[in-house]
Specification:
Elements (H helix, E strand, L loop, with lengths): L2 H24 L7 E2 L10 E9 L6 E7 L1 E3 L2 E5 L10 H6 L5 E5 L2 E8 L3 H14 L2 H7 L7 E10 L14
Antiparallel strand pairs: 1-2, 2-3, 2-6, 4-5, 5-8, 6-7, 7-8
Organism: Novosphingobium album (ex Hu et al. 2023)
Family: Belongs to the F420H(2)-dependent quinone reductase family.
Pfam families: F420H2_quin_red
Length: 171
């Protein structure tokens, strides 16, 4: 998949992503955690989290909804960008931070993050593809290795609010 076709997918889904984020934030996490993503090759009971991060260039705070899975007590997210040939901005921004903030349903956390490597990465990747089958298609569409980010909660924090974000996600 080229960056152009990835952009077309993002453009088609842009309104859905914004609506999903707003629903999640406006409900305090009561809605938006579980979503039906069968139209894009996912499951009907797919799990989503919110990730809050600071833009490495803008200094603005962004909140992005992402599919996730839990493996071994760590929350895993995938920097797929729909199979684009370059990494998503949220991933590049998280790489510049020592900690990460994430929300799952009605609970938010500050935590650590890491990227699995070697055999562990392969195990986690296979698990993510099992949970969210479209990741396999995204991986076939690009030459880059799609990064995985594993987050571990360290402390509970207040749930995210729309006004926490000083920037809007760029598509």
């Amino acid at each position: 998949m080229s960056d152009e076709s990835s952009a077309a997918i993002r453009d088609t889904r842009k309104d859905w992503v914004v609506e999903h984020r707003d629903m999640y934030l406006n409900s305090g996490g009561a809605e938006g955690h579980i979503m039906d993503v069968t139209p894009v090759g996912g499951r009907s009971f797919a799990t989503h989290c919110l990730v809050k991060y600071t833009g490495r260039k803008s200094g603005k705070i962004f909140i992005t909804p992402l599919c996730y899975a839990d493996i071994g007590g760590e929350v895993v997210i995938c920097a797929s960008k729909g199979g684009a040939d370059h990494h998503p901005a949220w991933y590049l921004n998280i790489r510049e931070q020592d900690q990460v903030e994430f929300q799952i349903a009605t609970q938010a956390f500050r935590g650590t993050w890491r990227e699995p490597e070697g055999a562990e990465r392969e195990k986690v990747w296979n698990f993510m593809v099992d949970c969210h089958p479209f990741y396999a298609d995204y991986a076939k569409a690009t030459d880059r290795v799609i990064p995985l980010v594993m987050m571990k909660a360290v402390e509970a924090i207040p749930v995210f609010k729309a006004e926490d974000a000083t920037g809007l996600r760029q598509f």
